[in-house]
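Hi all, posting the design record for the shared folder.

TITLE: backbone redesign
STEP: 1 of 1
STRUCTURE INPUT:
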């Protein structure tokens, strides 16, 4: 049995769930033949799972007069902006040039100051940290703070209550905050986590191959949401140990499979998902992940911040 990480045990996740209960939505699950149990987290406030971590970080740490600051490919920025608006504090969000216009509009719509610069997320992160050092604003990291991971872990707590018999969970991976939070909730259980990355954004694959977080390429259709340069340092030891125990299965999917999963979600269930939000389903539909006999599969649809016309 794996030990709990300090500050990221099941008790921390349960505490986070109580802390943010009035801030977030309890998103539904949908059973579809051949697809398993879909968790529809794209219906979450701000269009992705990210408000769970943003609210928990801000409520747990407290926000001063300087407000909050974050770097994001788009979804985390919208979540931080939405949480800041709800809590009545200022927010400044840095996004890279690849951030989709739909996500920029969401950030502005929640009243945050938007700063666009840098080719990819890592450049936006560096700029945001320099700005926070000047202003004293609270940094809300996209995927590498204990409070953020604990907040994302509340999704696993909620999903387990809705579908307690799942044996495999398919989760899209960017910087690893979502996977880390879900892994922390299931650390002592028997659920297998299927960590799905686009071929163009393989930072978890790179880290597992090297035995430590290392820089990885960033590209492809899901780069604005899953395009972290390097996997999170907090979650990587847990992911590596789950991998060694056979309870974490890394999977890569092609851009074409992601686009087809987006289209399939729309055709079959009228669900709009952004590329990163459809990546987990892409692994199942493309055969990149084949469930073993008797498996009960859960698939996370984690984001919907895209132009609906691009999906339909």
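Okay, here is what came back for every position:
SEQUENCE:
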């Amino acid at each position: 049995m794996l030990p709990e990480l300090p500050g990221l045990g099941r008790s921390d996740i349960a505490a986070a769930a109580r802390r943010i209960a009035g801030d977030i939505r309890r998103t539904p699950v949908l059973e579809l033949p051949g697809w398993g149990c879909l968790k529809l987290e794209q219906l979450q406030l701000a269009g992705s799972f990210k408000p769970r971590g943003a609210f928990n970080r801000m409520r747990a740490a407290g926000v001063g007069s300087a407000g909050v600051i974050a770097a994001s490919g788009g979804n985390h920025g919208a979540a931080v902006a939405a949480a800041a608006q709800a809590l009545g504090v200022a927010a400044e969000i840095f996004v890279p040039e690849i951030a989709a216009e739909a996500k920029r509009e969401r950030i502005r719509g929640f009243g945050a100051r938007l700063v666009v610069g840098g080719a990819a997320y890592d450049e936006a992160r560096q700029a945001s940290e320099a700005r926070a050092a000047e202003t004293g604003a609270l940094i809300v990291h996209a995927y590498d703070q204990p409070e953020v991971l604990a907040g994302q872990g509340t999704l696993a707590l909620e999903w387990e209550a809705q579908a307690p018999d799942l044996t495999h969970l398919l989760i899209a991976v960017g910087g690893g905050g979502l996977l880390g939070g879900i892994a922390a909730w299931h650390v002592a259980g028997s659920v297998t986590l299927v960590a799905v990355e686009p071929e163009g954004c393989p930072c978890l694959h790179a880290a597992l191959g090297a035995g430590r977080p290392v820089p990885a390429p960033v590209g492809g259709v899901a780069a604005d949401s899953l395009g972290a340069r390097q996997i999170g340092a907090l979650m990587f030891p847990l992911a590596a140990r789950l991998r060694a125990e056979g309870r974490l299965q890394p999977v890569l999917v092609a851009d074409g499979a992601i686009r087809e999963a987006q289209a399939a979600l729309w055709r079959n269930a009228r669900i709009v998902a952004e590329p990163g939000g459809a990546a987990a389903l892409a692994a199942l539909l493309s055969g990149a992940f084949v469930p073993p006999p008797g498996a009960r599969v859960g698939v996370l649809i984690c984001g919907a911040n895209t132009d609906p016309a691009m999906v339909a």
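COMMENT: The first strand starts at residue 29 and ends at 32.
Let me know if anyone wants the other runs.
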